[in-house]
Structures are given as structure tokens and as C-alpha cells.
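Morning!

This is the sequence you dropped in the shared folder:
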Amino acid sequence: MRSSLLLLLFLYACSSPPDGPSGTWTGSVTDQEGESHELKFNLRIDGTSLTGTVIGPPSVDSAPAIEQGKFDKGKFSFEVATRSPEGDSARFTFHGKLGGGHMEGEITDPDGHSFPFGAFKGDHATERTEVGAGGERGPQVQRAPGQGPGGDDGDAARREPAEQATLAAFDTHAVVGLGILSYSNQDFNNFILALLRNPALPDKVNDIVVECGNSLYQPLLDRYIAGENVPLAQAQQVWRNTTQPMCGFSAFYGQLFPLVRRINTALPPSRKLRVLAGDPPVDWSRVKTREDFKPFMERDANIATVVETQVLAKDRKALMIFGVLHLMHQGSGAVARYERQGHPGVTFVITAHNGFADTSLENRLSDWPIPTLAVIKGTWLANADLGRFFPGGNRVDGKVDGYLYLGPRRALLYQPVPARAVLDTTYVAEMRRRAQAIGAPMGAAQILREAADTSIFF
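The structure's back. C-alpha cells below.
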């Protein structure tokens, strides 16, 4: 059984090298006993034939050959025969899919137990020679930067350049969700805008699904994003008239929609991006009381429907930009809803760094490049108390997949409220009317007060 634990592998990651699937793939896993183990594949793919070797920890065969390997349209399967320290033979079966530098699938051990695994393309490990108790030089073990033989660093997170890793996630997932607890984090907003400008994005993504978009205006939004003659003053109804007051006072959304429109002007029709509004189709001119508003309070149900009907049913790829509670794999959020309705495993969820109040946790991130994406599974991030990330709950593992590091808490910037919205007295008055109509009289007033009192730092 221990040999099976040693071969339960791989930390999910998302690097995207330019070459094909042949070459070195590295990863690690934390087994059921809490120990972290590294593994390296050397793969050679020739047509539909897959061969190579597996380099594992010193307590198993050093480089058993891959047997019965097959590869077809991004899907693979193979077996590995190995031997435990006690001399018992064991055979493991691997199957899954790979592309763009990311591999994921399942491994089945001799007892029939299956485990999910992932790996990344490239040899990012460094050799480290272990010294035995008697001073002899033991077998060499491949270790990733920042990882020690165990203890505090044994579950170090594998870090990748954030834009590259986010785009690579689309090679294995139909949907990638970028989420955060507060859109007031300017660094998060800047990362998204930079990602949209990445020239590789239109080759990975068809749709951008946004929280701050009233789906009532989807036809108007489609015409605006496509570059038709729609004035910005008309298009801004899309994000100003949602169920959420913060959307109308967001400088980020006032930039995002025009930016996508501008990007589309240089793209051929087949590659033009579409922006999908996820918020319920509320017509505020008809909302006079809280009862009028109630049909539009099930926001996650509407978001899930938009993704199911406009993205998944049409076999498209989508970037979701939402508060992270809407994106979690567990709970009542939109992603959890459509995953339970027949779409498990199609979404890679990333939560962004808002900073830790715990200085010791901030220090563990101090040497991370900015911005960095780390996959959570099998790391100290997965085992951290969920309260350090989100309100309520107890663990991060299983709820989100990736962690987007944007810099130390002390230096994160706060998103300013745009003067254009504040000085639009007609709009501010309408926002106050809406708040009073649904019984939330502090809506617009609170946003404006916070905007006046806040520091420039998040």
C-alpha cells in the first residue's frame, strides 16, 4: 500500500510551453499520510504511441518504463510496473488528457483506488543530494524550488507566471473563473485588463462572462462589443443597472467593456470576443417595492443558466469574472450549481490575493514574483483555515483551484470611485431611489462615503 501512496502524484499547475507534449513533466502530491512526494515523467509521443519513463522517489524503482502507452487527440493512457521496498510488484494505470503544458487525469492503484492527478510541462526541479545517517551519499531526489524533504516547506506551492498559467488552464477546462472577495482591489482589476490585452487570449477564449452586467441588455451589449454604432452613454446601462450598486460606481467595468470592444476591432469575425452579462434581467423602471425586486434576487441561478446555455451547450470557452463566492465548487454559487447539473470538472477556479492579516502567512509569500498563479491542491494553501480567505467554512481545499498572488497586503491598491459616476447627479439620485424602494437606504450613500474616506491602499 505504501508504494501506491508514493505514486499518488502531481500538483496541478498551468505552465504553457511552446513545444509539444513530448518531453519532461514534473509534479508532486501529498499522500494520505500528509507526506509530499515528487515525480517526473520523460514522455515521447510519436503519433498515437506514447513511451518513456517515470522517475520516482528512492523507495521505488528509479525509472520504470511506461507500458501500453496510447495518445489520441489530447487523451492518453499508460501503465507503470514498479516494485515496493518489500519486493512486492505493483502496476499503476494512468489516463487523462494533456495540452498547453498541463496534464490531468486519474491514477488507479493495484487495489482499484483512483485518484485525480495533474502535472506541468518542463523540468523546474533541481537536484538535491540526500545524506544518510552514516554520512553516505544517498540517492538523488528531484525537488522543486522552495521545497525541502518535508516539514514546513514540504508542501510548497508550485508557482507559475500568472497570465501564462491562466491562459494555459483553458487547454484542459472549458471555463476559467477569476474571483476575489472585493472588486475594490485595483491590482486584481489591473491583472484582468492586462490578461485581456494578451494577444494569446482570443485563441483561448470565446466569451467573457461578467458579474456586473444586466442580462436584460444582452442584445445591446452584443452590438456594442461587436463595434456597432452604440454610444458609451447607452452601453453603460449594462453595468449601471444591475442588482448590485457597486457595479455602477466601478471604474473597472467602465474600462473593461470599452477595452473588449477595442480589441475586437482588430480581430476577424471568427475570433471576436463576446461579453455575457450574468446578472438577472431586472428592469429598474418597474421596481417600486421590495416585492417587485424579489424575482431578481436569485443571482447565482441566472449566472449558471447563462454559462450553461451560452457557453457549455455551444462548446465554447469562457473567462468568468466574479466575486469568488459565485465561483466555488461547493455551496450554492453559480459554478457549484451547473457542476451539479451535469458539468463537473469543466471549471478551473482562481481566487485572488486580498492580503492576510496573519503576518506569518504574508511572509510565506514574500519571495513570490508578482503576479503569480499557484495551484492550491496539495499545498499549505489548501490546508489553511478557510476563514483566512473567505467568511465561514474551515478549509480552502476543494472549493477553489488556484491562488493568484498580486503582491504584499501593505502595497495593494484600492480602486477609486470614478468622478464621472459621482458627478452624475441624476444617476446618484436614481441609485438612492432604488435602495429605498427595496429597503436598503444606505446603498449609494455608503459607497460614496467610503469613496471619500478610504486610503489609496486596499
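Headline: The chain has two domains: 2-148, 162-411.

More detail when I'm at my desk.
O.
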